[in-house]
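look at this stuff:

>
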Amino acid sequence: MTVETLIVLDLLAGVAATAGWLGAGATAARRAGVALALAAVALVATLARCATTFGLAGAGWWFAQEKITLTLPIAVAAALAAGSIAGPRLLATVRGRRPSPAPDAAVLVPLFGAGYAAAAGPAVTLLAGYPATASTVLVTLALVAGAVLTTWRVVAGSLPGARAATATVLAAAVAGTGLAFVPAETTDAGGGTAASLSHHGATSLADELTASPSHDGMAASLSRGGAAARGAQDGHTSGRSPVSADAVAEVPVTSLRGPSTPEPGGTVRRYDLAARTATIRLASGKQVEAWTFNGRVPGPPITAVQGDLIEVRLRNDDIASGVTLHWHGYDVPSGEDGVPGLTQDAVMPGQEFVYRFRALQAGTYWYHTHEVSDLGVRMGLYGTLIVSPRPTGEAATGTPGATDKKDPSGATMSSQAGASGELDLVLPVHTFAGTTVLGDQDRPIERAAEPGAPVRLRLINTDNTPRRFALTGTTYQVAAIDGRNLNQPGPLDRALLRLPAGGRYDLVFPMPSATVVLLVDGRPGLRLGPGATPGAAMSVADTSGWPEFDPLTYGRPAATPFTASSRFDRDFDLVLDRGLAITDGRPAYAHTANGRAFPSIPTETVREGDLVRLTVVNRSRETHPWHLHGHTVLVLSRDGRRPAGAPLWLDTFDVQPGQVWEVAFRAGNPGLWMNHCHNLSHADLGMALHLAYDGVTSPFHGAHGG
């Protein structure tokens, strides 16, 4: 049984126990037999909760912490009280040995009390989430006890010691509420062998409530940045070391910019991007109001050869909320990362910003705005970045942008990618108001391809949720994931490819003599063939029974610079959940990490050279594609199982409900970095934090009133 299934069953058992106990209390006065049956159902549901809790504890303490420390003990205690006090009385009534229990407080109060205690289980899980803090414990106990006292007064009319009991309940409620306002640490040194945290900054619920909220959410990083100065950013904007007592020289993030020259033999490739609103017409004739780069969606393809210098001048014509450029998956210097309020100010209408970095990583990448990114990317502010390997023994030459060709189908074709005759299609998938667009086409793409020609399909998911691809008519290889080549990939056929939000797969194969069709979520997106006819009907294979591709078991193992057995300098845990929290100065039902929402999630602090392990746990019922800026992570394990295939280096990994991922990286790119869910609506509702190198500072906090 999966962890996700256990989570759902635990919630259902909690609801069943609540309904059973409360139903028993409501019917006990008139229908003792029904009440007894409902109480029996509630008791069985409580026992089921014990089983699911122990099952979840076996999968990891994160999944059962609030159940073991709070909700299950009070539910079991209340159930035992109801069973031992009310149970015999109900049974005697059913057998005719005693009159109806109404208005017997000894029957009704235990039954209702067990219902209140059972209700605390799903309520705490859904509203408070992980972890159950002292504040959560006190408030929960106060609410349950207060409900029991109220019921007793309604049923019996009086209660000995009622004033003292009421005062105790109120004191617990006030204390629990007050604890939520106690300042908490704003930095997390990771608890590894090198961790030595200096206590220099703290934030509390009061700080968050008084922080000036951003009007677009995720203020300090994905939108505005100012709240970082008051919350999680204090650790590195103050100039005091968050990692160690040893002095570290301050380095402003503005000095961590890219070079001005390419590597020897490389060339400078210059691009101008103008962000503007526009009405675009899709192939079907549908018109879409979009935010665009240069009046098109996706934006102009940016291409280079390894060793080239990429220089992009971004101008904002009329995007009122501002715009930046983030190079998704590309390990640029921190000052080029495009995070407003952290590495730069947002580029407002009439302003410009120049990004400059060397193209050192070959592969498939993409770029998008990081200002109001949930809305901005959905509206069309994205494009592709393709870097080709430098030919062995040759220098990269050519006029910037001259090697880019626009396929009539709307897909971008790069002639840099390989040998003569190779068909290289860049296929970003995006959703505009419910319409799926592949490249810039909302109709299936038809492309002629000669038998035997090498084909590369670069799949890029620019949406917030996973997309599923299937390739019919040929065997193929997944040559690269997230821009990194896999070791000895094997042949694939009849497999469903689940691509995380922000992720990329490169599929390669020699063109067969038959037609090849790429399916996107079960619908035709691309047809390749020697005689492809635009507008011709496409046959769709039934892929419903195809197994899902698992990248952790694909390819051949190879040596890596570190493994799960290595000695780590920093260890960070992120437990992803949902709960009531303050994000950007306002209360919300937020997406949380370790029980907090941005900007109050402590900043993860590292030093250059540290070996860092990150454990990401998903307690929620939604998938979270996790993305760390500026670094590529090596997958160590998923749900305790180490990869059996090729080493998997990723910049975005899909943490599905109930999963636990362990990844690691070497801290070799100094700066200030975002670490967030790439379902950007989740990030906008709090699921984001910072990773900071010791001594790196930012002058941008407070910009635009974040």
